[in-house]
Each structure stands twice: as structure tokens, then as C-alpha cells.
Amino acid sequence: MTVTAIPHPAGRPGYSETLPCEPRSAAVARRLVRTALGAWGHEGLADDGALIVTELVANATEHSGSRLIRVVISRSPEGFVRLGVVDRSRIIPVIRTDSNGDQTRGRGLLMVDALTDRWGTDLYRWGKQVWGELKCEVRP
């Protein structure tokens, strides 16, 4: 995981939508991810992308205390698709390492870590973006 204090430069092609910070927003976020990946010809990443954004929305809903979130999907020149959720909290998420077998919650970032090539948190003065990146397939 990486944490950066400087936002990424503007101008990358992407999709974004502001949503209520509530669990049902995950369905809209999944549709947005599928739309972006389909438009970019990366349908093969759609299932993993949908799971990742679902977990990121769930974390924001559970822990941020925000009224709204922003879901952001962008491409980088390095060949990654970035899926991010922006909220108003500056608390950096951490992977839970406790192994309490009775707990059914709190393992979302383990899934994000397993599914992404890299993930992290960008801090802003007013909040943060938690993101995960998937490497795009190489096209001939």
C-alpha cells in the first residue's frame, strides 16, 4: 500500500460520479466500472473491478462518516486502470490482520490487496481517495 499527499495531475481520461455515502451506491459504482472498462475494451477486468469498487464503497460507507462519496475510474499512461473512492475522512485505511474466525466483516481490504496490482490512499486537505489499480491487458 502507498500513501501520497499530492493528488494526481488532472487530465487523465476517466469516469466519475458523486453518490450518497450508503451501501446501495455500490450497485451504481459497479455499473460505472463496467461501463468504463467496456468503453476502453477491458471487459476482462470487469468482475475484479466490480468487486474492488464494491469493497471501497463499503469501506467509505462504514468508516468515513461522509454524506457523499465520489467514485472515480481512470486510466494511466503506464497501462493501469485506477478505481477510486473519494470521501471526506482523512483516516487512512489499514488491512486487518487479526484472524478471528467468527468475524465476517473487516476483510475487504484483504480482497482489494489480493485483486489489485497495487492500491493505496491519496490524502487531500479535506479527505482522501482510496484506490486500487489493475494492469490492463496488452493489445496487439
Q: Can you put this structure into words, describing what you see?
A:
- It is a single chain.
- The chain is an alpha+beta fold and 140 residues long.
- The chain has a single domain, classed as 2-Layer Sandwich (Heat Shock Protein 90).
- It contains 3 helices and 6 strands; from the N terminus they run ββααββαββ.
- A 6-stranded mixed beta sheet has the order 1-5-6-4-3-2, with helices on one face.
- A hairpin with a 2-residue loop joins β5 and β6.
- The longest helix is centred in the middle third of the chain and has 18 residues, at 46-63.
- It is globular and about 35 Å long.
- Mean pLDDT is 87; it is low at 1-11.
Describe the SSE topology.
Blueprint: E1 2-4, E2 14-20, H1 25-39, H2 46-63, E3 68-75, E4 80-87, H3 108-115, E5 118-124, E6 127-135
Parallel strand pairs: 1-5
Antiparallel strand pairs: 2-3, 3-4, 4-6, 5-6
Helix pairs in contact: 1-2, 2-3
- Supply the helix-strand structural class: alpha+beta
Radius of gyration: 14 Å
The number of domains is: 1
CATH architecture: 2-Layer Sandwich
CATH topology assignment? Heat Shock Protein 90
Give me some keywords for this one.
140 residues; alpha+beta; Heat Shock Protein 90; globular
Summarize this structure briefly.
Helix content is 29%, strand content 30%. The protein is α+β, with helices and mostly antiparallel strands.
